[in-house]
Each structure stands twice: as C-alpha cells, then as structure tokens.
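Suppose you are handed only these lines of text.
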Amino acid sequence: MDRISLAFFAAALTFTQRLPAQGRPVTPADDAAGQAWWAHIKTLADDSMEGRLTGSDGYLRAAKYVVGQFDSAGLRPAGINGYYQPVKFDVTRVLADKSSVTLSAGGRDVPLVLGQDAILGARGTQPKSIAAPLVFVGYGLHLPEANYDDLDSRDVPFSSLKGKIVVYINGGPADLPAALKSFARTSPLEKALADAGVVGSITIPTPKSMDFPWDRVAANASQPGMRLAADPKDAEVAARHPALANLHRTMFSATFNPAEAEKLFAGSGHSFAELLALADAQKPLPRFDLKKSLTASVTTENSAVESPNIVAQLEGSDPSLKKEYVLVSAHLDHLGTTTPVNGKTVFAGAMDDASGVASVLEIAKSFSQNRERPKRSMLFVIFTGEEKGLLGSRYFAGRPTVPETAIVADLNMDMFMPIFPLKKLHVQGLVESTLAADARAVGAEHNIEIAVDPEPDRNSFTRTDQYSFVQAGVPALAMKFGWAADSPEYKAWRQWLAHRYHSTEDNLSQPVDTAAAAQFDSFLGDLARRVANSAGRPHYVESSFFHRFEK
Ligand SMILES: [Zn+2]
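From them, the structure of the protein bound to zinc ion can be written out as follows.
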C-alpha cells in the first residue's frame, strides 16, 4: 500500500469509527435463531398460560415448560427442589367497592371516587381504618447522604411527621443523580417513613412520567398485591443487606390521579398546577401543611401463595473459577387475567417478559452446545413475583441457592423490546460498575452502541430485577433496545408503552423483529462469556453511590 492510499485508508477508518453503530446485517443464522426464540414465546404467552400470574396454575405450567427446556438443553438443576426455589407470598386484594376515602377540611367533607380520583395500594398492609392529617413533602426524597431531605425541612420538620399521611409528587430536582432519586423511592423511603412514625403515604405521578394513561392504572388496581411472607431468615438477610430488609408494617397507601389532584391542595394556599409546573421543570418543591385530613376505611381480601424461582446451572471449566457464577436472568410471571378488554381477557406478556425468558433459554442452550465451556460457572435464573415488586429476585438475592459471595454478576433482560433493528442498547447500571467496559467491548464487536438510559425518570433502574442484585452489592446490568430522540424507533417504543405495556395487547399478534432478538441473544451470550472468562471479578466503581452495598 502506498503512502497516499494509506493516508486515505486511515482517514476512512477514522470516519467509520465516528459513525454511529449500525448493527450487523441479518444473516440466515439470525433468522433461524430468531424463530427458535419466538417459538418459546408462542408457548409462554399462549392464552393457555393464563397470563402467568405469580403462584397461579398458568405460572406453574409455564415454569414446567422452562424446566423441560433447561433439562433437554443438558443443564443441571441448581434450586432447592430440583430446578425450583420455592418462594412464599402474602397476597392482598383491595376491594374498592367495599372501601371509602374522604378528604375533610373546615367541617366540609369531600368523598373520593376510588378508581377515578385515586386507587388504594395493595403491596403493603393497609389499616382497616384511618383518620389522619395530610402534609405535603415535595418529592418525598430522603437522601441525607446527598444533603437533600424532603422529609426534614424548616417548614415541615421530621419530628412533625408522626401520625400524619405524607403526600408527594413523583420526580426530583435536576441536580440529584437519576439513579439516586430512583433508589430513594425504594427501601430508604420505607424506612424513613417508619422511623418518622408516618401512618400513610399518597403519591401523585406527573402526567409526563406516566407510561400509560390513568384508566389503565385504575384498571390494574384490582390486581392482587403481594409481599414476601415473613421468614425465619429475615433478620439474618436484613443484617447482611439492610436494603433487602423485609419490612412488615401497616401503612395506608394510595396513588392519586394527577387530573384530580387539585382536591388535595384546595385551601392549602398552593395549587397542584403550580407544583406540577415546578416538578416538570425539575425544580425544588415547597413542603407545607395541606390543612385537611383523610379518613378511610379499607377492605381487603388476604391469602397466601407459593410460587417458585427456577435455577439452572452450567459448570465452568476452570478448577478454581468454576466455584464462581455469572447470572443471566429474566422474569416469568406477568399479570394474569382480567375482565374483557376489547374482547381479550389474558395479559399474555409476550414482551413482558416471555421475551426475556426465551432469551435466557436460547443463551443457555447455546452455552450448553458450545464445547468450549466458560471458566466460571453460569447460572440461568428465572424469577417469579417481578410484577409484584421484584419479589422473586429480591428473595433470590438475599437467599441465593449458591454461596452468596460466589455470584460475580447479574445480566438481566426485562422486555428488551426487539421491535426494530438492533443498533443500540440502553443499559441500566452502566455508570455503576466495571461491567460497562465489558458491555462496550462486546458491543463494539457486534457493532452495537452501548448507551445509558436517556429516560432515567421512568425509574427503570429500580423497576427491573437487576436492582435486587444492586442492593445486595452484586454488579448488575439490564438492557433494552435503544433509539435516538425523535426517531421512528422512539415513536415505536412510546406507542408500545401507551398501547401495549401491561395491557392485553402485549400478545402474540404484535410486530416483533425476531432476527434482531437473535442478534441481541448473541450479544448477551458473548457478554456473559467475557465476564465468565475474565481473570478478575467485576466490581462497583468508586464513584458509584451503590459501591456502599458491595462487600
Ligand atoms: Zn411488567
């Protein structure tokens, strides 16, 4: 090669590297693998699986299918009872027609219409009756480590919260890191409210932050809520991982329809419209007394159910590293059935998350068929109870079926959305651990751009099973097909959320790019193999807030 063409080549190379990743061309192998992937979804999201509600017959049938697939792929059971790790749940169903909520101020009562004005929470234990004053606490963020505390301000000090119901708007000021805001909504809030003696909480979503309209929020309110049942190991798990502590506290909880939220603020000297404008601009919110009280009587139906996680193992090849495990995971449960919506009664959950389970099965099969074993062992884990608050993964992270310190990483898939070609992945947890470098290296091999979540206020970071591992100090990633702002792909994603997410339309008749799903599986398999083969374990980076959970 002469000098001039060399220079030209170098320039062309630089130019190529500056172009955004474009994915790989689809091959016949991708097509075939995509069909194999889709075949699992056709089974798991079939009407006969009845929406795979945690603990239901349909869930157990789907679990049997998964076990059969692991078994025929030559994997080994690694649960407690064969492949299964049984998990016990307390179940609460709120009977809205036998419950009532009233706001009272200055001798005037405003009864609320449940479903239209607000819905009652089913995840915690509701009191049978309650009467308490309401106080507005901004975003409800308690983050003393970031010098930010909505629960302890000059206007509403922490010591004044005892016996009150706190009201807050979902969101947070722009200058707090997104993952930290999401984190603050989980165990730290629960603990701070308990410490303050708060007796209830009302959250108001902002219309901008809602994935789908209020009528679907209201329709899902009759879903049974679940909690992990109290367990003799609770204290031990909480001592090791305070963030995974199982708090069994009675507390009133409700979500208010933002379109009706002026009812809460009337007479307080503030309007919801004014607060919403501040929240949409991610500005600080005031905290103040709402000058009214809430009276409620709540009727619930309580029961118990058992539903298993599923754990399969592939032994690594290195005599010493094989004692460690890389997890690839997804959740099997979904929302069960409903009264007919457009003639459909089954929440099929094809993308959420039969798609992820199908990928775990295909990745497990390809590891098993590959003669070259990874150095570390692989653990393929299918969770129950995700839709009820990441409960199956929380149980597993606190009580793994392999030695806890042997788990080096979790790579999770939850509706990874192969509805357009794969060029880019949005990755949860990317800025937290050294797994980012692995994801970027494997992404470069596959010509896939690796990027952070551009919509952190959707709180996906804490709404996906990988978060249970973050709380246990295990480096973890979860990923979805990425898009560019205002692109056709972005529109497809938003339309999917608005029309199909947690609706009966997330079914087998939606358009799916099966070849792109196969390309994703190939990427994730390569990523898992890289982590399993690397000399050192992945770890949290010093700058990560979640570094503190690492042992
Ligand atoms: Zn879901």
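What can we learn from it? Residues 350-369 form the longest helix (20 residues). DSSP finds 15 helices and 22 strands in the chain.
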